[in-house]
Amino acid sequence: MYSCAVVLAAGEGKRMKSTTPKVLHKVCGKEMINHVIDTLREADINDVNIIIGNGSEKVKENTISKNVSYSLQEKQLGTGHAVKCAKNFLEGKKGIVAIFTGDAPLVTTETVSKLVSFHQVNGFKGTILTSIVETPYGYGRVIREKNGEVKKIVEHKDCSEEELEVNEINAGMYCFDIDALLSSLDNLSNSNAQGEYYLTDVIEILKIKGEKLGAMPVPFEETMGVNSRVQLAEVEDIMRRRINNKHMENGVTLIDPKNTYIDAEVIIGNDTIIYPGNVIGGKTIIKKNCVLYPNSRIQDSTIESGVTIQSSVILESCVGNNTTVGPFAYIRPDSVIGKSVRIGDFVEIKKSTIGDHTKVSHLTYIGDAEVGENCNFGCGTVVVNYDGKNKYKTIIGDNVFIGCNTNLVSPITINNNSYIAAGSTITEEVPEDALAIARARQTNKEGWVTKKAFNK
Ligand code: UD1
Ligand code: CA
């Protein structure tokens, strides 16, 4: 049967106290609304309409790549009114519409699929997802008939004493027969405690019409919504645990999963070992057999197999097989580090390529450079790529040996198999096979200390 989805995302999210619309707050590196859209798509619901209102432009900008459509709700008059705003999207369609909210990102693909088939197999006109909770405070309560059939949903603020005792809550996620929903939306009224048009009232309207309704309880862990930063952190915690469990099931060792922070879209190969304090973000790919010792941040990067990293920052870069990075290295965007390279302590690489087997072991800056294979950078080498106004390029060939404390003033080319004496400031091209020395010759003044300077 045809199915589509409407995702409510027009609300303001006052309790977040934020200039960012609530649904754009991230959980494990991905906007909440994009979690919901991705989950719907994985459940084979492809035609997705987003109700936007507050911060509509920002919400659009951040979801546009998902190929969804939008309906504008200019004034937030309630969840029922929000769905009404999707009338153009729904009209003329025959089948099922799933309605979800953009601020509840923990619902799983399996649950969405189950909800749709539960709705369909039982021939319901409306089906709600529910949870049984200890403290139902704030949620709409699911009121059932004596025989267990769903009767209505009553919002917390409209509950009687008796209804407040009910601990089955409305998750705010539903399936409806499109025709049944459309024909009920016009009957909504806003004469309730909040003066809003409640989507939840559609359930009672359908019931009165004699339609069959269903309710499917799932663990609260899937239905939790985010209204505040505290809830955002709680949801993040659950999502993080799920992500980390998935990686462990795939053969990744996490020494301390509670202190390992991996974004939703990160890919990690098996037999990689990750120590605590690592923050791995964006679209990072880490291949197999890597060891990530504690406390690195790796963002939008590709780390090939067998790489060892410790206490370093790697941003938007690639690191080749069997290379070691750190401790305390900083690899900045657009860098490509080759295979079996050593990037040691206090080394910064910016927008540079480093060839295979090259060693940059300590205290070195390399910026805007192309470095060949099998080079050795002495301690304290600086690529002087900036003259205060412009940045220039440095080219270093293969098998170049650079002595300690060398400045390479860009633009400059250092050709293959050359050798630079320690302490040189190199300003001219170094030919192949040459030794370049660019420093003052040493003079020793014998007996100078006793004879003159410190004569007592
Ligand atoms: C809603 C349900 C409640 C349920 C709870 C689950 C109603 C009336 N109540 O309450 O039964 O237990 O969710 O979390 O539906 N929104 C709009 N336009 C509006 C109003 C809201 O797009 O005019 C969006 C919000 O951005 C949000 C979602 O709808 O994503 C839910 O709205 P919210 O005000 O948070 O509803 P609750 O009071 O939590
Ligand atoms: Ca809410």
TrEMBL record:
Cellular localization per UniProt: Cytoplasm
Cofactor or coenzyme needed: Mg(2+)
GN (gene name): glmU
Ranges annotated as spanning the membrane: none
Keyword set includes Nucleotidyltransferase: yes
EC number: 2.7.7.23, 2.3.1.157
Pathway note: Bacterial outer membrane biogenesis; LPS lipid A biosynthesis; Nucleotide-sugar biosynthesis; UDP-N-acetyl-alpha-D-glucosamine biosynthesis; N-acetyl-alpha-D-glucosamine 1-phosphate from alpha-D-glucosamine 6-phosphate (route II): step 2/2; Nucleotide-sugar biosynthesis; UDP-N-acetyl-alpha-D-glucosamine biosynthesis; UDP-N-acetyl-alpha-D-glucosamine from N-acetyl-alpha-D-glucosamine 1-phosphate: step 1/1
Catalytic residues (positions): 362
Subunit structure: Homotrimer.
Catalytic activity line of the entry: alpha-D-glucosamine 1-phosphate + acetyl-CoA = N-acetyl-alpha-D-glucosamine 1-phosphate + CoA + H(+); N-acetyl-alpha-D-glucosamine 1-phosphate + UTP + H(+) = UDP-N-acetyl-alpha-D-glucosamine + diphosphate
Location of the region described as N-acetyltransferase in the Swiss-Prot/TrEMBL record: 251-456
Binding site for acetyl-CoA: 385-386, 422, 439
Domain Mannose-1-phosphate guanyltransferase C-terminal: 264-360
Domain Nucleotidyl transferase: 5-213
UniProt main location, coarse: cytoplasm
Similarity comment: family membership: In the C-terminal section; belongs to the transferase hexapeptide repeat family.
Pfam family, one: Hexapep
Protein name: Bifunctional protein GlmU
UniProt keywords, alphabetically: Acyltransferase, Cell shape, Cell wall biogenesis/degradation, Cytoplasm, Magnesium, Metal-binding, Multifunctional enzyme, Nucleotidyltransferase, Peptidoglycan synthesis, Repeat, Transferase
